[in-house]
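Hello Y.,

Per our agreement to keep a running log of every chain we model this quarter, I'm adding this entry. I've kept the format consistent with earlier entries: sequence first, then predicted structure.
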Amino acid sequence: MVVRVGKLKVNVDKQVREATAKAAQKCADLIAANAPVGVSGEYRDFWRWEFADNETAVIYNNGPHRSLSHLLEKGHIVYDGDGGIAWSPAQPHIRPAFEQVKKEYLEDLKNIKITNQTSGGGH
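Predicted structure for the entry above:
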């Protein structure tokens, strides 16, 4: 028996980029949906994402209250009106969104269909 193995050309860049964009958008949407409202309500309205390079998506808050992200996510000390201090409890909204979307993203990557892409224009 003779088995001949030819070259297999596979390019999944487009499918990975599409899955990454889908995951980044969903993560930004989930963060915004579960973000604390606050006094102005602006914090939750400014969650965005963009590709940092061809394969890395970055999710960020570009609003006037963007510096609150880590404080709200992890909790922080606040000063009350009488000169005392208190603890403002964590309001996790970033990590839970990431964890949820990560599972879906990995499944989407597993489900990418790999097809042989021959060169030369033949079908």
